């Protein structure tokens, strides 16, 4: 905090500046050596692929997916199969059929439920004309 120290720090010393101009720095990277593995190769991580099981819907989706994954159409198909026939399409069978983890299949079946479309019968004209409007009293 003292002004003498600040002045000393900010003062340029000509002797040091001339010595600094004489300094020459040369930098080189070490030569790059190509290692000969001698036949040793690191295993490359290649994903195993499987053909999708789409049947008549194969034009709507991808042809190959990685093992442990399913396509969107496959997901909808297996969810619908499980909904319609849960005794046949169990979580174990789905996991084996689609190369999935059983824990993931159980989560899929628990949290994703396909919609059910229901059509209600339309009322006939006879039923509409036969009803009499009520009078307000």
Automatic annotation (TrEMBL):
Any one GO BP annotation for this protein: mitochondrial respiratory chain complex I assembly
InterPro entries per the UniProt record, alphabetical: NDUFAF4
Source superkingdom: Eukaryota
Pfam families, sorted: UPF0240
GO CC, alphabetical: mitochondrion
Transmembrane segments: none
UniProt record similarity statement: Belongs to the NDUFAF4 family.
Description of how the protein assembles with itself and partners: Binds calmodulin. Interacts with NDUFAF3.
Entry protein name: NADH dehydrogenase [ubiquinone] 1 alpha subcomplex assembly factor 4
């Amino acid at each position: 905090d003292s002004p003498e120290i600040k002045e000393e720090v900010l003062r340029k010393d000509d002797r040091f500046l001339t010595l600094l101009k004489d300094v020459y720095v040369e930098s080189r990277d070490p030569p790059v050596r190509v290692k000969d593995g001698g036949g040793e190769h690191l295993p490359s991580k290649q994903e195993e692929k499987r053909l999708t099981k789409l049947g008549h819907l194969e034009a709507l989706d991808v042809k190959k997916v990685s093992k442990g994954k399913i396509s969107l159409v496959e997901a909808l198909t297996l969810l619908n199969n499980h909904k319609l026939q849960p005794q046949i399409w169990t979580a174990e069978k789905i996991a084996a059929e689609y190369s999935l983890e059983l824990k993931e299949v159980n989560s899929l079946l628990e949290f994703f439920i396909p919609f059910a479309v229901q059509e209600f019968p339309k009322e006939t004209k006879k039923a509409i004309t036969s009803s009499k409007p009520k009078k307000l009293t």
